[in-house]
Amino acid sequence: MEKSKIMQHEKFGEKDFQTIIGNLLRYGVWISLSVAFIGGIVYLMHHGNEIEDYSVFKENDRNIFEVISTVYNGAVQGNGAYLIFVGIILLFLTPVFRVLLSLFSFMLEKDYLYVVITLIVILIIITSISFGFSH
């Protein structure tokens, strides 16, 4: 009985963060795959008999805010292609959230070297996203 009282008063530790991060990665992948799979089914139900023409490349040169708005509106309307895209975005965001949780973990542990390294990684991710949509 005494041991259980001691266990209840322990601080939130590194092992707890590792569990949360593991669950985030696991459930993030499953949720993103489920959304993309459902989007694929919806897409095939509406466009399964169509033949795609890949002979002409259509470039969509839009900024990230237009893309997010278009994807959101299409997903809310139940468009299969946009649901697939939401699944892909969720799959991309899963490791990004892992980096953010790691930053929070390092800040709680007061491990400032890894806080700086994680902030650099976040800066690289933001820069990559920004320049990827602004060419």
Radius of gyration: 21 Å
Helix content: over 70%
Can you count the beta strands? 0
The secondary-structure element order is HHHHH
Main β sheet profile: none
State mean pLDDT (0 to 100 scale).
84
Distance between the termini: 63 Å
Low-confidence stretches: none
Tally of separate helices: 5
- Percentage of residues in strands: under 5%
Task: Report the structural category.
Answer: mainly alpha
Which outline best applies? elongated
Write a structural description.
This protein has 135 residues and is mostly helical. Helices cover 79% and strands 0% of the residues. It has helices spanning 2-8, 14-47, 64-76, 80-109, 112-133. It is elongated. The N and C termini lie far apart (63 Å). The relative contact order is 0.13.
Throw out a few tags for this protein.
single chain; 5 helices; mainly alpha
Structure summary:
With 135 residues, the chain is mainly α. The protein is 79% helix and 0% strand. It has five helices and no strands.
SSE map:
Layout: H1 2-8, H2 14-47, H3 64-76, H4 80-109, H5 112-133
